[in-house]
Amino acid sequence: MVETDFQQADRYWFGDQLVGCSLTCKFEEKIVDEIRFIDAHEICNRMRLERPLIFLDVETTGPYPQIDRVIQLGFIRIEPSIVSEGGAITEAKIIEKELLFSIEGSVPSESTAIHHITNDMVFGKPEFYQQAKQLAEVLNGDICGYNGDFDIQMLQAEFDRCQVTWSHGLLVDPFKIFLQEEKRDLTAATKFYLGEDHTNAHTALADTRVTLRVLLAQLKKYQHIPNTVKDLNHHLFGKIPEGYLDPKRRLAKRDGEIIIAFGTHTGKRLKDQVPSSYLEWILRTDFDPLVKEIIRQETGL
Predict the structure, then answer these.
(1) Closest-CA residue to 143 (of 167, 166, 170, 174)
(2) Is residue 83 part of a domain?
(3) Runs of H (alpha helix) within 47-185
(4) Per-residue pLDDT tens for 73-94?
(5) Where are the strands (E) in the chain, listed by range?
(6) Same domain, 151 and 88
(7) What radius of gyration, in Å, describes the C-alpha atoms of the chain?
(8) Cα dihedral value 291, 292, 297, 301, nearest 10
(9) Are 284 and 274 in contact (CB under 8 A)?
(10) Distance CA 276, CA 126 (A)
(11) CB 266, CB 250: distance < 8 Å
């Protein structure tokens, strides 16, 4: 039985003047700094929390919930506990913890290169299933995560493997707020790069003229990017994302082996786990020539 202390927490008092900012947090065995107290207090009251809000993030062996595993979880649970007559939250419980999980097999080197979590770091740690029931309880609340859909999908896959029900609440995502509120349209680009308003937006020639000026300003500002049409096109559309073997992320590398990175056979090794009929379908349809060439080299088809 793995001993955990998820449900223990010091009580942190908030008020008009911050109190108790030097209390020890049992989970981390270190002093919770004043800034995090102030932020938690403000979150409680600005969002008028009525139930727990859990901030969380996961690190994984890869991007595919059906085959990859969560190897690290960090979370901060804020639970309002006492509300004043005026409606302000004057007391809240905070739980903050970071966990590592061991897995069957190894952490792919491609993943370690991103999050720096090694096999040695997870060796001997509890497996997810050993703490799944307690985690389902402590993560029972509304969720906040940056690009949090991914974190929820990865955690949900872990709970499903353990046959443990996880009933989280609503999702709040700062990434979505960022995309909505910090526009990336031509009007915003005109203001950012040219320092002026685009007064004739959505008239064709005016948009065309300002696009020319924006591109020129970008080439002047970002002198490290290519400035020929061919090279700039490759920089924007032809670069292969990290961990993948083609621009559209059809093939990837996992522990030195080429795998399929999309569809029914996601995560399967190209050379001996993917049906030849599936590979032949790729070869005769309109997939990227680079994908086809890699398949031919790897399989001899």
Answers:
(1) 170
(2) yes
(3) 109-115, 119-122, 128-138, 148-162, 174-181
(4) 999 888 887 666 666 666 778 8
(5) 11-13, 24-25, 30-31, 53-60, 70-83, 89-100, 142-144, 171-172, 251-254, 257-260
(6) yes
(7) 25
(8) 140
(9) no
(10) 39
(11) no
Smallest CA-to-CA distance from 279 within 256, 301, 261, 251 is with 301
Closest CA to 95 of 82, 78, 80: 78
Domain count along the chain: 3
Nearest to 170 by CA among 142, 208, 195, 192: 142
Contacts 24+ apart (CB under 8 A), 122-128: 122/71, 125/99, 125/100, 125/101, 126/2, 126/99, 126/101, 126/102, 127/101, 127/102, 127/103, 128/69, 128/70, 128/101, 128/158, 128/161, 128/162
Residue 35 pLDDT > 60, yes or no? no
Residue 58: name the closest of 71, 47, 49 by CA.
71
Distance CA(24)–CA(21), nearest Å, equals 9
User: Given pLDDT bands bounded at 50, 70 and 90, which one contains residue 39?
Assistant: confident
For residues 87 and 22, membership in a common domain is answered with yes
For residue 170, the SS3 value is coil
Which tokens in the block code for residue 226? Answer: 């290519």
Residue span of the structural domain in which 203 resides: 183-230
**Residue that terminates a domain, selected from 135, 162, 177:** 177
Mean pLDDT across the stretch 231-237?
Answer: 90
The C-alpha angle 101, 106, 108, rounded to 5 degrees, equals: 105
Question: And the tokens for 187?
Answer: 């009007």
